[in-house]
Design a protein that fits this description.
Strand order of the largest sheet: 3-2-6-7-8-5-4
Radius of gyration: 16 Å
Shape: elongated
Order of helices and strands: EHEEEEEEEE
Strand content: over 45%
Helix content: under 10%
Distance between the termini: 14 Å
Amino acid sequence: MKQVTRAATLADLGDLLDRVPHASLAFETPTGIEALPVGFRRIEGQFWVGLPRGEGAPSAGTHAMLLIDDGVFYFELRGLRVRGILRDTPAPPALSRTLRWLELDPVKINAWDYGSMRERAAP
């Protein structure tokens, strides 16, 4: 019996990462978990998260999870989840200065694309 997978790679989602329709960041706070919409750019393999300036935004060193997704119907669903730690690194000049940019240093990355299900390799 054949097995299929919805798993994808970053290369499979290149167009999604170039034009992100939805990006959200969940992060730890002293009182629990919070989430907010964020800007996103991937530059030279680094994940950059654009946060609003002011209170309520996470700081460097915070454990966070970025979710980028697209699609409405089952076979359109695709996305990326990056779990990692936020780093306060000088942002590349190409990024907007209206947001505060932090680098998300990945610990684990999951990607999926239900429209491109493929046969799973034998274990």
